[in-house]
Amino acid sequence: MTEDEAARFAQMLHHRKAELAPGEPVVPPISLATTFHLPEVQGAAHYYGRAGQPTWDAVETQLSMLENAEAVAFPSGMAAIMAALMVTLKAGARVILPSDGYYVTRLLGRDVLGRYGVEVEEIPTREMAQADFTGVAVVYLETPSNPGLDVIDIAALAAKAKAAGALVIADNTTMTPLLQRPLDLGCDLVVAADTKAPAGHSDALFGHVAGRDPVLMGRVRDWRRQTGAVPGPFEAWLVHRGLETLEVRLERMCASAGLIAARLALHPRVRGLRYPGLPEDPSHEIARRQMAGYGFLLGFELEGEAEAEAFLARCPLIEQATSFGGVHTAAERRARWGDDVAPGFIRLSVGIEPVEPLWQAIAVALSG
């Protein structure tokens, strides 16, 4: 984290201080209101729950401070992705999606965008830098890719896409704005599932879109209001709470992931290990230049499906779950979702457990 980013995070923790009157709660209250006192429309901060409300305001302020850009909250990461794509595409437009990215985004391209007349092309993350963007409306990237953890040079890709007249949307879920800043590197919009590390406790679905073009962000806000894709106030409050500990959780998670990755690299049963923080990883050099940390996700292979499933079942400190970024270390065999990975490929999301007991549990499970 740079000095500027550290200062921004510190300010985020105290973002409500200036508006607090004596005796008011430091923690933002949960506002359940859907209707507001509206004797006249002009000058009202809120007028109807689908357009905005106080608990959203608090978490959007936090997200805006971290992104250094306007942020619009959504009820899930996929709702944010849908909004970003729908406000930048129309029938006949062409979009490039990562073929090795989050599988639900690919399903959205096939089952929704394609049905509405958008031409969808899928390209692996590592090949995007060589792609021809002529005639492309939107380049959508995910770096590191999920689950393969390939990394692309965001600034170079954004410059190439813009030269061809394309907008660039980056899914920054795996990194968060504390570890990677796609808007600073030239992207037009950032999307993220705050369900993951920002909320951090596996108890709230949430997402956001961030950007610095007021016209584009106005379309995003209109999309939310007109489609009703709105978050709940309790979920917003949970994410607000989670964001306040994001920096300290990420510090532990990333440090532990780096240590575990280095040890897995030496284990005789482990093959195909991917972690951008390892000097020998194919993505290391790019990651070193554009990230403030290497993240908490690892990918590796065991011999086959049976071996991977047995390892996951044996390890008492790994939750077998399909999400990531929570306080509990979690993992799953990603081929079961149709990802183009080996049958024994495991995505491991390192949590906040003390690292030595966690490693010992992993080592024992690997030796079983």
Quick rundown:
This protein is α/β, with parallel strands linked by helices and 368 residues long. It has 12 helices and 12 strands. It starts with a helix and ends with a helix.
Write a structural description:
Helix content is 36%, strand content 15%. It has a seven-stranded mixed sheet, with helices on both faces. It is an alpha/beta fold. It has two domains: 3-243, Aspartate Aminotransferase, domain 2; 246-367, Alpha-Beta Complex (Aspartate Aminotransferase, domain 1), CATH 3.90.1150. The protein is built from twelve helices and twelve strands. Helix 2 (54-67) runs parallel beside helix 8 (233-243).
CATH topology of the largest domain: Aspartate Aminotransferase, domain 2
Average pLDDT over all residues: 95
Note the run of SSEs as H and E: HHEHEHEEHEHEEHHHEHEHEEEH
Major sheet strand order: 1-7-6-5-4-2-3
- Please work out how many helical segments DSSP would assign: 12
What is the β-strand count? 12
The first-level CATH class of the largest domain is given as: Alpha Beta
Instruction: State the end-to-end distance.
Output: 39 Å
Provide the structure class: alpha/beta
CATH superfamily of the largest domain: Type I PLP-dependent aspartate aminotransferase-like (Major domain)
Gyration radius over CA: 21 Å
Q: How much strand content do the residues show?
A: 5-15%
Helix content: 25-40%
> Globular, elongated, flat, extended or rod-shaped: what is the shape?
globular
- The CATH architecture term of the largest domain is 3-Layer(aba) Sandwich
Major sheet size, sense and barrel closure: 7 strands, mixed
Sequence stretches where pLDDT stays below 50 over 5 or more residues: none
What is the total domain count? 2
